[in-house]
Amino acid sequence: MGKFEFTKKFTINSSMEGLKECFEIASGIQKQFHFESSKEFAFITVLSESVNNAIRHGNKFNKDFLTFVTIMIDDKKIEIEVEDQGDGFDLGKIPSPLDKDHINLESGRGIFFMQQLSSGLKTRGRGNIINITIDR
C-alpha cells in the first residue's frame, strides 16, 4: 500500500454498541472528505456490512473478541480493512444471492453488496481479515 493522506485505525467490541461507534467514526470521516453521494453510499454500506459480518459471523457477538478496523484514504481510493478474531471464511464459498437456489436466503447478501459497490474485495489471514477498495 502506498502513502495515504488519511489513516484511521480503531478497535471496537463485538456488539451493536461497537457497530454504532463505527458509524459515528464513519460519519466524521464522511464530513471531513465530502464524498460524492454514490461514494458516500458505497463507503457507509461497505463499512457497515463488513463490520457487521465481523461482529455477527466472525466473533459471534462474543464481547471478549474485538473487531479491528482500518480506513485509509487518498485522492484515488478508499481502503477498508476489517479483522475479527473468529475462525474466518472462504470468500469463494459464499453463494450468490442471485442464484435461484439462494434467492430467498439472507446469507451472502452483504458480501454481494460489498462486491458490487467496491473495485476490489479479498480476504487474508485465515479468512478473518477482509480488505475492500472503493475507487474515489
Helix/strand/pairing class, anyone? Answer: alpha+beta
So what's the overall shape? globular
Largest sheet features: 5 strands, antiparallel
What's the quaternary structure here?
A: single chain
Give the tally of β-strands. 5
Low-pLDDT stretches are none
**Cα-based radius of gyration, to the nearest Å:** 14 Å
Q: Helix and strand succession?
A: EHHEEHEE
What value does the average pLDDT take?
Answer: 90
Strand order of the largest sheet: 1-2-3-5-4
Distance between the termini: 16 Å
Structure characterization notes:
The protein has 136 residues and is of the alpha+beta class. 36% of the residues lie in helices and 26% in strands. It contains three helices and five strands, in the order βααββαββ. Strands 1-2-3-5-4 form a five-stranded antiparallel beta sheet, with helices on one face. α1 (16-33) packs antiparallel against α2 and α2 (37-58) runs antiparallel to α3. The protein is globular, with a radius of gyration of 14 Å. 24% of the residues are buried. The model has no long low-confidence stretch (mean pLDDT 90).
Summary keywords:
single chain, 136 residues, alpha+beta, five-stranded antiparallel β-sheet, 3 helices
Explain the layout of strands and helices.
Elements: E1 6-13, H1 16-33, H2 37-58, E2 66-73, E3 77-83, H3 109-117, E4 120-124, E5 129-135
Antiparallel strand pairs: 1-2, 2-3, 3-5, 4-5
Helix pairs in contact: 1-2, 2-3
